[in-house]
Each structure stands twice: as C-alpha cells, then as structure tokens.
Write a structure and sequence with these properties.
The chain is mainly α. It has helices at 5-14, 20-30, 35-46, 52-64, 84-99; strands at residues 68-72, 78-82. It starts with a helix and ends in an 18-residue tail after the last helix.
Length: 117
C-alpha cells in the first residue's frame, strides 16, 4: 500500500484535539452560528453535553489556526464561521466520513431460521 505521508500528517492534525473535527463539521453544516447556538449544535452532533470551557478552548484554538473566524452578523452580534481553510478542512472531514462504512450503514437484516423440510 502506497501512502502519501504529507496527506496523512494533514489528517492527523484534524484529530490532534478531540473536539476540533466536531466544531468544524458543525459550522460546515449549520454555520455561521452565535456562541450559544454553536455549543448547542455541538452537543447535539456529538451526543453528549460539552462544557463551555471545552467549546471555548476548541473555538479559540481553531481561530488561532485560521480555520474559524468571529465576525459581526450585521446586528451587532458576533457569529462564528469557517474561513476558506476551515471549509477545506470540512470538505476533507466530509470525504473521510463518507468513506467510512460501518454496521450502521449496512441494511439491518435478521438471519432467517432454517426450517426442516
């Protein structure tokens, strides 16, 4: 199997911090979002309540990395959205998620019992 290790390093960076991928995917799916909306959407998407400090640390890290930006929504409220780099990361995450097939993607069938003839 031939790997492109530069691409593999890029994928590894996506998962260096536990909640980065969820925040990026949340903004890609539902953004731009105000902070409270972002925290609520992340909770729905990841299936568990995240502390405010977790969401803030994740958001701030992604802002520093240039993947998320905070802008005015035109009504004086800050909203969070993906930058161009963030949208590229979201596309990579979507492609990876699409390529993973697990038992949830397979049709659920029950084995049929063999009846004696």
């Amino acid at each position: 199997m031939d790997f492109l290790f530069a691409r593999l390093r890029r994928i590894q960076r996506l998962f260096a911090h536990e909640w980065d991928a969820f925040l990026i995917a949340t903004l890609a799916a539902a953004g731009p979002l105000r902070y409270g909306q972002l925290a609520n959407e992340m909770t729905l998407n990841c299936g568990r309540r995240l502390s405010d400090s977790t969401v803030v640390r994740t958001r701030d890290r992604l802002v520093r990395q240039g993947l998320v930006e905070c802008v005015d929504d035109g009504l004086g409220h800050p909203v969070h959205r993906l930058t161009e780099s963030g949208r590229r990361q979201a596309q990579l995450l979507a492609a990876m998620a699409e390529s993973i097939k697990d038992e949830l993607d397979l049709p659920r069938t029950r084995p049929t019992a063999q009846r004696p003839a």
